[in-house]
TrEMBL record, chains A, B:
PANTHER family: HTH-TYPE TRANSCRIPTIONAL REGULATOR BETI, HTH-TYPE TRANSCRIPTIONAL REGULATOR RUTR. This is TetR/AcrR family transcriptional regulator. It comes from the Bacteria. Keywords: DNA-binding, Transcription, Transcription regulation. InterPro entries: DNA-bd_HTH_TetR-type_CS, Homeodomain-like_sf, HTH-type_TetR-like_transc_reg, HTH_TetR, KstR2_TetR_C, Tet_transcr_reg_TetR-rel_C_sf. Residues 14-74 form the HTH tetR-type domain. It comes from Pukyongiella litopenaei. One of its GO terms (molecular function) is transcription cis-regulatory region binding.
């Protein structure tokens, strides 16, 4: 294993990759993955298709890389809350807020994730595409595992209602993902307003899992 | 207005329509709308494409009719809880349970609704397709309005937390819709198990909106 060689990603080429991913995410999110061509993405970039192919082997690879980028962003945003000390409820609240904010800030990427998981756009996937997808599934599983663990801890210590853990996890994650469907940023929206939205969604997610107050 | 004439839907032709809708929903849900052809649906039915075209003008019309059928089923299931007497929390719980059960029982139809709203498969819609879609949006709006009203009543009487109503509605509906993503019926699943799932999801939705118990 060497860190040199033609496949080494230089900072400049990393920038170009990010630029391509951003253009792809924007067009995929707006028009749907299947209706968007590499030609359109190249045009958006003011570049040739060759430039895209230099960095990504196919549209399917580009789609998966958009998704992986999205999951990486979410993971980085949520991990500090997961690793923080304190009771499970407090950590879940912090994770939930971070999840919603990260999603609002990077909405196009997350819309592509939803399309990838939902739209059937991966049906008929080739072997290579299947491998990309397996990679992505592993990443989202690792992401969800943080929420699963903190929920399990809350049920264990009694601060959260003891109920089916998988249903709880899926329900909470879906509520936290909901803004990807309904959130449309206003041009004059303030950071305080964005925080308020994240706060309300996090409060609702907590309410869905916390044990009722005694009395 | 007359109830006779060539466009009258006879019981037999209504059955055929339902059969076509069921085949379309099953294939659309499994393989994605855009990847499914009318030929495949005809093959599934053991019929010709002509039979489908006799009842539905286009694939887009078939897709929208699958969705409308889905929303109609949900509306019928949820309306009794909405119109029931009693406090908003009790009515919401009944509506939530009915929503989840109806969705679990008619999963393929609901997956098509999700694809239609999410997958970008309606981009580039023609005028006629746009009209179908407007119709569908009106129906889902009327459906959501039942939940909006009961949530507003709960906030009004203080039994539910006073917070942004649209965010509350969207979050609750998304949590209630989540089973369409994660629910896969087991062949040996009992009615009691299905009821248990619906019960847990309804409990979580209630927890997300109810005011914390005083004390």
């Amino acid at each position: 294993m060497t860190d040199k060689g033609p496949s080494m990603t230089t900072p400049a080429s990393a920038d170009v990759r990010c630029e391509i991913l951003r253009a792809a995410a924007t067009l995929f999110a707006a028009g749907g993955v299947s209706a968007t061509s590499l030609d359109q993405i190249a045009a958006e970039l003011g570049a040739t298709k060759g430039k895209i192919y230099y960095h990504f082997g196919s549209k399917a690879e580009l789609q998966t890389e958009v998704c992986k980028y999205s999951v990486r962003l979410m993971h980085m945003a949520v991990a500090p809350g997961f690793h923080a000390p304190g009771p499970p409820g407090d950590r879940l609240r912090r994770m939930a807020r971070a999840h919603v904010l990260a999603m609002m800030c990077n909405r196009p990427y997350h819309r592509v994730v939803v399309q990838t998981y939902m739209g059937g756009s991966t049906s008929g996937a080739s072997g290579t595409e299947r491998a990309f997808l397996d990679d992505l599934i592993q990443m989202t599983d690792a992401y969800a595992a943080m929420f699963r663990e903190v929920l399990a801890q809350g049920m264990e210590d009694g601060s959260m209602r003891r109920q089916n853990l998988s249903i709880t996890l899926n329900s909470v994650l879906m509520m936290l993902n909901a803004p990807v469907f309904w959130y449309h940023p206003r041009p004059d929206e303030t950071e305080a307003e964005r925080n308020g939205i994240a706060e309300q969604v996090a409060d609702m997610a907590l309410g869905a899992v916390l044990s009722p107050a005694p009395g």
